[in-house]
Amino acid sequence: MTDALIVTPRNAFETLLAGNQRFVAGASEHPNQDAARRTETAPAQSPFAVLFGCSDSRLAAEIIFDRGLGDLFVVRTAGHVLGPEVLGSIEYGVSVLGSPLVVVLGHDACGAVAATRAAIADGTTAGGYVRDVVEKVTPSVLAARAAGHTEDADYIAEHIRHTVDLLLDRSRALAEAVQAGRVAVVGLSYRLADGTAHLVTARGLDLPTGSVA
Prior knowledge:
InterPro entries: Carbonic_anhydrase, Carbonic_anhydrase_CS, Carbonic_anhydrase_sf. The chain has 213 residues and is an alpha/beta fold. It is built from 8 helices and 5 strands. It has helices at residues 9-24, 35-41, 61-64, 84-96, 111-122, 130-146, 152-170, 172-179, and strands at residues 49-54, 72-77, 101-107, 184-190, 197-203. Strands 2-1-3-4-5 form a 5-stranded mixed beta sheet, sandwiched between helices. Helix 3 (61-64) links the parallel strand 1 (49-54) and strand 2 (72-77). The radius of gyration is 17 Å and the shape is globular. The chain starts with 8 loop residues before the first helix and ends in a 10-residue tail after the last strand.
């Protein structure tokens, strides 16, 4: 699929998955990473996806999805926690840059989720601004506990779902774009060991959760 064909949420999603499959197979093509692409994108950008992910150093978006310059509008925070600046950045990617896809990318062994689970279990409090991260992850951890979950993967999935829900609850612009069929929001869980991205939740796409990129 060429970039010229990435005009719908589904096409954008399929392009992202194809890149992850190449990465997993060790067959990355490194598209759009040459001097010609640099020159092409210098005047303006039109990324086909907004990627909101965890800041973890092992989640370099353009690498794990085998993309290049101008392809992804990336926003990252520890534990992919939301704040006004994050919401504004995502809305900018959708409303101004015209991206048809928003991806929430979580991963296993997430330090923010682990720290929050420990804080709740032990009654400890993180120091500095890390406390703010823990506080924002807490609702997800409490929901997972209430559902009887014990496995790390279930906590991660719950936090990804919670983040997707928050995005659509707090951003009227994003919710209206999804309702109109112009944009889809998906939540993916990345596995550090094998590099695969698994679908956790989707809004605006008719896809089975649990599918592998």
